[in-house]
């Protein structure tokens, strides 16, 4: 941990126009949060259906605010209007800060970041919501790596206060300051952390998922493990948390962690080829039990 976000917060102009790449669980949540706190945001995806889902989720969350009397219908309409869905980079020339939130794959992210860099202005800040991939590594394809850093939100975005701001080897103070400022604008608590696979939170969390996976592979009952962890005092157990995160994201992020810390982390995915039992999380993924995103994971959802 380097410096508390607050030490950067006063050093940057506000973000007047944001952009997010990916309208999935995280991209949709980031768009909602930005819009709800008054910062207009372009939400870009490559699939029309994803944009529809992202907007549906935002409408649902604003609807709840309306039901609870926290917002009037005019306020809901105004805030929803802050989200501009798009399938193209057309208006990205006016964006001050972009959050990339596409799949957790270094090659895909590298290509998407290099692509958006062609459309934004020279002083725009690019950030990645990667869960695990090194920011220095993601910056390799960029022309302006000094304008790039990590901006790692947690799921669900509207409820989780923490945002990790990750400084890569070439990240400038100005990029960190702008990202910290945007996190604060969104009502979040930014913390500036060093760059390594998994940063701070997932460096702690993924070995926990790995331990859970081994326990399940050895025959433990996942519901029992969840109940025990709840009694231990955690708000939810590992199986439920994995359903929230998504098995695909957990497997991809687990692979990055295992590559980064081979001596300490068994991969959450893989296994099987060398005679070891397959990881429980990999088995879930292979059987399309992705979690809440497709309504079936460890638990079943409506
Ligand atoms: P998701 O699968 O729900 O969404 C990814 C979206 O990206 C999809 O809608 C897909 O169509 C879109 N996409 C793919 N390629 C694209 C491109 N070239 N341009 C624009 N959109 C594109 O995934 P998610 O759970 O939202 O995760 C996104 C990122 O956030 C990952 O890096 C993940 O590690 C990170 N993250 C996830 C969680 C979590 O709990 N799910 C938490 C923190 C961070």
From TrEMBL:
It comes from the Bacteria. Residues 198-301 form the 3-hydroxyacyl-CoA dehydrogenase C-terminal domain. Residues 18-196 form the 3-hydroxyacyl-CoA dehydrogenase NAD binding domain. In the central section; belongs to the 3-hydroxyacyl-CoA dehydrogenase family. This is enoyl-CoA hydratase. It comes from Halomonas halmophila. The gene is fadB.
């Amino acid at each position: 941990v380097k410096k508390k976000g607050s030490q950067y917060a006063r050093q940057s102009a506000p973000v007047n126009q944001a952009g997010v790449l990916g309208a999935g669980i995280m991209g949709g949540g980031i768009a909602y949060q930005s819009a709800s706190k008054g910062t207009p945001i372009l939400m870009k995806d490559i699939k029309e259906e994803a944009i529809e889902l992202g907007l549906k989720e935002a409408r649902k969350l604003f609807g709840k605010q309306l039901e609870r009397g926290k917002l009037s219908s005019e306020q809901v309409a105004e805030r929803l209007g802050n989200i501009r869905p798009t399938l193209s980079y057309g208006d990205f020339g006016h964006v001050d800060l972009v959050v990339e939130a596409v799949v957790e794959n270094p090659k895909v992210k590298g290509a998407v970041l290099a692509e958006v860099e062609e459309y934004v202005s020279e002083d725009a800040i690019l950030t990645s919501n990667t869960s695990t991939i090194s920011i220095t590594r993601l910056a390799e394809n960029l022309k302006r790596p000094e304008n790039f850093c990590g901006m790692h939100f947690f799921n669900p975005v509207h409820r989780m206060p923490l945002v990790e701001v990750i400084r890569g080897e070439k990240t400038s103070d100005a990029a960190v300051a702008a990202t910290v400022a945007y996190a604060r604008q969104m009502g979040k608590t930014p913390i500036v952390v060093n760059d390594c696979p998994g940063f701070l939170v997932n460096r702690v969390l993924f070995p926990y998922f790995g331990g859970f996976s081994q326990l399940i592979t050895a025959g433990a009952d996942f519901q029992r493990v969840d109940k025990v962890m709840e009694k231990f005092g955690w708000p939810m157990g590992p199986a439920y948390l994995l359903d929230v995160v998504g098995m695909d994201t957990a497997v991809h992020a687990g692979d990055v962690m295992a590559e980064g810390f081979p001596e300490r982390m068994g991969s959450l995915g893989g296994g099987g080829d060398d005679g070891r039992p397959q990881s429980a999380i990999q088995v879930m993924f292979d059987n399309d039990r992705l979690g809440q995103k497709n309504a079936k994971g460890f638990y079943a959802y409506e």
